[in-house]
Design goal:
By secondary structure, the protein is α+β, with helices and mostly antiparallel strands. Helices cover about 25% and strands about 20% of the residues. It has one domain: HIT family, subunit A, CATH 3.30.428.
């Protein structure tokens, strides 16, 4: 159900049924492990037999179009520990499900909550994808910023963590939270395109963030309503909670200089690649 805030009329998703979600952190059986497939709605996609990646509608949906992508059959596996080809297939399925839901929703949010502090109720690694009947506030506002020029096509001034043929992994100078990073495609485009080597960067980022905090989030930010937009992925470890100042003002306080973010994550990613 969509409601609106009293003063500005901003949309709010009302989904009280999500309070019924069982928490595997509290000892409930894991519904994402092999053998528990009947605990989830019928799947809409899978990779491998037996499966290694599967997608299905969320049993406690926030909207009409809400899916879960379980990226591994192993309960305790982390994204950085996946074999490179497995990680690439998981990311490819994210892109496939994004396109499928985009046919039915004006906007589709793809995100990962890793760890309890990041909002996960089930520790088994997974991502979520939610289609909304409106353009959410953040992409709507950021979309307006691309009308005159694209600020993401010239990112040389932002501290670089790493880069690949098709992506830049940066610490944005205007980061709103500690150790926030963006993975920005070099090719300009408003929505998620081919994943290419994105999985490898996400694996490095997942490992690097795990050296800072146990929990992290990532979110794909797309601009289906603005063809001049430039999509990207935002990632951040959960080192603090959003507190009264942020809630009351809408302004964030960042305690880590982005230059220090880049140095720390660059060193962690290099250590992962070299095995040191």
């Amino acid at each position: 159900m969509i409601r609106k805030t009293p003063i500005t009329g901003d949309p709010v998703i009302l989904a009280p049924a999500r309070n019924e979600r069982p928490s595997a952190y509290e000892g409930a059986p894991c519904p994402f492990c092999p053998g528990a497939e009947r605990e989830t709605p019928p799947e809409v996609a899978r990779d491998g037999e037996p499966w290694r990646v599967r997608a299905f509608p969320n049993k406690f949906p926030a909207t009409e179009h809400h899916e879960v992508i379980v990226e591994t059959a192993r309960h305790d596996e982390t994204f950085d520990a996946l074999a490179p080809e497995h990680a690439a297939r998981a990311v490819q399925m994210m892109f496939e499900r994004y396109r499928a839901l985009r046919e039915r929703s004006p906007y589709v949010a793809l995100f990962k909550n890793h760890g309890r502090a990041a909002g996960a109720s089930i520790p088994h690694m997974h991502s979520q994808i939610i289609g909304t009947p409106f353009i959410p506030l953040r992409p709507a506002r950021e979309g307006d910023g691309f009308v005159r020029r694209c600020r993401l096509c010239a990112m040389e001034t932002h501290p670089l963590i790493a880069e690949s043929e098709h992506y830049l992994w940066i610490a944005p100078l205007g980061a709103t939270t500690a150790y926030q990073q963006w993975i920005v495609p070099k090719a300009h485009g408003p929505e998620m395109d081919e994943p290419r080597e994105l999985a490898a960067l996400l694996q490095d980022a997942a490992w690097a963030m795990s050296t800072i905090a146990e929990a992290y989030n990532w979110a794909f930010v797309n601009f289906p309503h603005e063809e001049r937009g430039h999509w990207y992925v935002e990632l951040a470890p959960r080192t603090a909670v959003v507190a009264g100042f942020e809630l009351g003002s809408g302004t964030f306080i960042n305690t880590i200089d982005p230059a220090d973010t880049a140095r720390a994550l660059r060193a962690a990613a290099e250590a992962r690649r070299t095995g040191r």
